[in-house]
Amino acid sequence: MSISCMHFSCQLLLLLSFHRHVNTNLSVSENSTFITEPPVETPEPKTPPLAPLTPTQTAQRSVVLTGENHTEKIEVVNPVILNLECVWPGNSKSLPNITGYWTKDGQTIETSYSNIPLENDRYRLIKEFTIMNEEDLGIYSYLFGPKAKVEFILAAPHLGEVRDKPIVSYVGDSVVMLCKMDEKKPQPISWNWYIQNGTNKVQIESDANAHKYKITNEGKKTKLLVYNLTESDSGVYYCGAVYGVATSMGHMQLRVITYYEPLKPFIGILAEVVVLVAVILLYEKTGSRKHGQSGTEENTDQTNNLSHRDNDVAEGHSSTRQRKV
Amino acid sequence: MPPPATSNLGYTPPDGGWGWVIVFSAFISIGFSYAFPKSLTVFFKEIQEYFSVSYSEIAWVSSVMLATMYAAGPISSVLVNRYGSRPVVMVGGLLVGLGMVSASFGTTIVHLYLCVGVIGGFGLAFNLQPSLTIIGTYFHAKRPLANGLAMTGSPVVLFTLAPLNQFLFDSFGWRGSFLILGGITLNCCVAGSLMRPVKKTVESTPKEEALEFNGPEEAAPEVSTESQSCVQRFIDISLFKHRGFLIYLVGNIILFFGFFAPVVFLAPYAKHQGIDEYSAAFLLSIFALSDMFVRPATGFAGNTKWVRPKIQYFFAFAVSYNGVCHLLCPLLPGYAGLVVYAVFFGLAFGMLSALLFETLMDLVGAKRFSTAVGLCTIIECGPVLLGPPISGALVDAFGDYKYMYYTCGVFMLVPGIFFFIMHYFNYKKLDEEKHKAAVEMRTAEDTVHLNIGQKDKSEDEVEK
């Protein structure tokens, strides 16, 4: 397994009970496991239902602490009932009882305070969480008193590399913006694109504005084509990968500029080239004219001098075998 | 101490003075010729999305540019023979500039193939050949050094263009970048304007000394252009009867199959081994740095009195060293091993590049060099283009990079050994020819002296 497990040994006890009688795939990678839906025969609803519905999966994750801290990343794709178990091995100096509590995103969950007895040389606690939608995702931490902490980071699958620098395009031109999910991550149900309007995210409807926007979804990739760009199209765009539990967002910035912007440095460089070429050629012409003026009378002398000088140079470099005749 | 400045050029080259300015301008021209196609890869991802094409279709832009640059070699040679280096380089610079500017308005991928690939390729060809040729006219004694320095242009310009291209892309997108790059390549015109035709001062030392130290250039007087037919003057088919040229050509055809592929696959190989993208890119920088420093050093070494006479062996050593490097690469473990490989490969690549054209000049002489290099590049066009895809196919077929490295190693080692053997025989034959010519000259001189002596005697008798 990976190097980090040398520091923290992870024992995963997974208890899976299902509403439907199908098999699931379980893949375990370095720090996170994701719970995936099996291939579905019936079509899924387009938007995740808002009414509380009986979750179809239950899962359990356990962590045995070997140090003072441990962080576990859990990728959640669909609504799930998650049992989180924390185990802290004690030693001879351990107290018979300690108080522990849960926090979510830094806020203490008041009802979670409990006393944990020392049993079989360890403290053990398990709690059930219902993860239904985006608000239920976040960082859940369990603290064993002030000393030990286990962190579970629950999140929807993150997008792959998204360009952090602005995408530059030109007025009248078109642009393609790309968002993609890593190969190893599960495929989203669908993709949505949003544009920033003030503080809101407005969804882009490609059907309504077919001449302006075109959204192409190909499984784990999505492309937004914007035609006939104008300067007002500049701004922040969001792509959202829709999963059962939440939508994973990525953002990118579009900058629309006119052709005058690159034209200015281009003209500058052009001017520099013209000036340099003119200077070099003129310098050579005046140089040769000077030579020509003074050299017409002494032309033969000049060439003789040159050849003599070259000879001396040659002599200086030559081996002793050189004989002057 | 470098050998004497006499050559069979018919004049004494300056070996300095304005020659160093020529080296600088050749540095820029050669730098753009080799580095420009490689540096365009920064834009490919975005252009690929924009035109909705596959990566291999976009990579063709670079390949077409490189292919045209090599294939247009003979045309470039003809123009240089006719008009000299300066106008050709200036036209070349204009062509590349024009190509890039029109590409920035491109609407289809074919538009890019034509503007960047074909027009740009022609422009670069018109930069490469004349720069190499003009060094041969300005230098003889210090020519290896001049060549080494000029060839350093390639890694230096690549090193500069790579981050510059990234910056331009972030600020202006690909269209604006192409426009500005068109302007930047116009600086080749500036380089061209510096290439003054050399002042041909008449050689005043006698012919005999010309025979003493010419390197392996054939001691027999060069074929005079007047006696050649029109076609021969342009293409010079007689080069194919030139022993040295043939050796060079055959060896080069084989070695170019394995020359560029390891560079192309260095970063992917590193990533395949699990190294992250930035460290993999850093490997290329290490490679470029060691390449950059070894080229002038090789030029300098090639100029020394121990190496210059047998510079072909030095070249053969460089080729073989490349081969050994690639054969050992798969055995080096981890990132540290790859760094070591990058350093040594950079040294090998630089050494070979610095000597590549110097050895050709050495073999055929500066007069026929222009035509020779044109012929060489058009024939090498094939291996240069086929090398990386064949290596890529090997990687895909075996799923492992080591077979590709072994193949490239063999492709370089075999020509290296071939060069050693063939040049041993070539040097021997050249020495024999030189002795024969020297003997003939001496007998001719003796007869002349005899005749003069007799004439004097008869004149004396007449006077008496």
Describe the secondary-structure layout:
The complex is a heterodimer of chains A (325) and B (464).
Chain A: H1 4-7, E1 17-18, E2 26-28, E3 32-35, E4 57-64, E5 69-76, E6 80-89, E7 97-104, E8 107-108, E9 114-117, E10 122-131, E11 138-144, E12 148-155, E13 167-170, E14 175-180, E15 190-197, E16 200-203, E17 213-218, E18 221-226, E19 235-242, E20 247-257, H2 260-295, H3 299-317
Parallel strand pairs in A: 3-5, 4-6, 5-12, 13-20
Antiparallel strand pairs in A: 1-4, 2-3, 6-10, 7-8, 7-9, 7-11, 11-12, 14-18, 15-16, 15-19, 17-18, 19-20
Chain B: H1 18-39, H2 44-51, H3 55-71, H4 73-83, H5 85-103, H6 109-138, H7 143-151, H8 153-185, H9 187-193, H10 207-212, H11 230-235, H12 243-255, H13 261-272, H14 277-303, H15 311-328, H16 334-398, H17 402-463
Helix pairs in contact in B: 1-3, 1-6, 1-7, 1-8, 1-9, 2-3, 3-6, 3-16, 4-5, 4-6, 4-16, 5-6, 5-8, 5-9, 6-7, 6-16, 7-14, 7-16, 8-14, 12-16, 12-17, 13-14, 13-16, 14-16, 15-16, 15-17, 16-17
Greatest interface: A-B, 43 and 45 residues
Main β-sheet description of chain B: none
Helix content of chain A: 10-25%
Q: Would you report the number of β strands of chain B?
A: 0
SS elements, strand count of chain A: 20
- Assembly status: heterodimer
Categorize the overall geometry of chain B.
globular
| Fraction in beta strands of chain A | 35-45%
> In angstroms, what is the radius of gyration of chain B?
24 Å
Q: Roughly what fraction of the amino acids of chain B lie in strands?
A: under 5%
Q: What sequence of helices (H) and strands (E) makes up the elements of chain A?
A: HEEEEEEEEEEEEEEEEEEEEHH
Cα Rg of chain A: 36 Å
**Secondary-structure element series of chain B:** HHHHHHHHHHHHHHHHH
Q: Roughly how many Å apart are the termini of chain A?
A: 84 Å
Q: Which class of secondary structure composition applies to the elements of chain A?
A: alpha+beta
